[in-house]
UniProtKB/TrEMBL annotation:
Name of the featured protein: Glycosyltransferase 2-like domain-containing protein
Keyword Iron-sulfur part of the UniProt annotation: no
Positions of transmembrane segments: 267-284
Any matching Pfam family: Glycos_transf_2
SUPFAM superfamilies in alphabetical order: Nucleotide-diphospho-sugar transferases
Organismal lineage: Bacteria, Pseudomonadati, Thermodesulfobacteriota, Syntrophobacteria, Syntrophobacterales
Record keywords, A-Z: Membrane, Transmembrane, Transmembrane helix
InterPro entries to which the protein is assigned, alphabetical: Glyco_trans_2-like, Nucleotide-diphossugar_trans
Span of domain Glycosyltransferase 2-like: 5-126
Length: 306
């Protein structure tokens, strides 16, 4: 039996999807795997490309865009492999055995429900948002005021930052759904992805739910995948942000911090966005577009447009 099911959800990402699948099959891995592509009603010929160029892929074509969580759940509910890897269509697997060491880790740590890897841009720089911690007053504050960057060992923020160069895993509360391996026996106990999240932050909710159930969620810094980030969303994300992401994080904050108004999350996140917008603006013309976007998100969250 193949130990791994790779699940790729795609929406109008034909070129990136082709590059992703090509890198997936060119990877010299020792791990047998089966690949599923769930196409969320793309109109760019994605399904035709998969059928013509990758006949070994199990293709599921939805008649409408059902969102990221629901599309993944379609496959998660039917896989028979011990592990499943959620993989974004805008990722590129390096020309090395990624799956072998990843499966080895999961086999050695049966208490681990999910694990993620280091996500980088094509130039090798690390992306913010490949793992992190449960949204709380402390983690949101540490993120907003840069404490998690300045003092990463003492001040945990929403995002994992200041990652030391090490071979060992890092225990976190969530890992990014762009490249997330899950143990199916535990998934069946804690439940599948929350389909109330159409897109963004469903990985945060899922990881936090796994931790709440008593399992580990681990970040593996020695495994790297390139993530082109933001293709399906029209490149609306910057460093893990989007207006919808902010709204969903508030929802998770309210769930895990009963009695604390969700508005507190808005205010702290808004403060962080305003400070980043200011810093990008001061940094010069090169960063003005980022400054404008950060200020746009600040307006959205403070004036309750999201």
């Amino acid at each position: 039996m193949k130990p791994l099911s790779v699940i790729i959800v795609s929406w109008n990402t034909r070129e990136m999807l082709e590059e992703c699948l090509r890198s997936l099959y060119e990877q010299p891995t020792r791990v047998p795997f089966v690949t599923y592509v769930v196409d969320n009603a793309s109109v760019d010929g994605s399904s035709e490309m998969v059928r013509n160029l990758f006949p070994q892929v199990e293709l599921v074509e939805n008649e409408e865009n059902v969102g990221f969580a629901k599309a993944n759940n379609q496959i998660l509910r039917q896989v028979v492999t011990p592990y499943a890897l959620l993989l974004n269509s805008d990722t590129i697997i390096p020309k090395s055995d990624v799956f072998g060491p990843w499966i080895d880790f999961m086999e050695k740590h049966p208490e681990c429900a999910a694990s993620g890897c280091r996500l980088t841009f094509p130039d090798g720089s690390q992306q913010v948002g490949d793992a992190g911690y449960r949204p709380s007053l402390k983690t949101v504050l540490c993120h907003a005021l840069f404490f998690s960057r300045l003092f990463p060992e003492k001040c945990k923020g929403i995002f994992l930052t200041g990652i030391p160069k090490r071979d060992g895993e890092i225990d976190v509360d969530w890992v990014c759904g762009a490249a997330m391996m899950v143990r199916m026996s535990i998934v069946r106990r804690v439940g599948y992805m929350d389909e109330g999240f159409f897109m963004f932050a469903e990985d945060i909710e899922w990881g936090c739910r796994m931790k709440e159930a008593g399992y580990r969620v681990c970040y593996l810094p020695w495994i790297t995948i390139v993530h082109l980030q933001g293709v399906s969303s029209g490149k609306q994300k910057i460093q893990g942000f989007s207006s919808l992401w902010l709204r969903n994080v508030r929802k998770i904050f309210e769930r895990y911090n009963p009695g604390v108004p969700g508005r507190m999350c808005d205010v702290l996140m808004g403060l962080g966005l305003f400070l980043r917008a200011l810093l990008y603006f001061v940094a010069g013309e090169k960063y003005r577009n980022k400054a404008r976007r950060m200020f746009h998100y600040f307006e959205d969250i403070i004036f309750r447009k999201v």
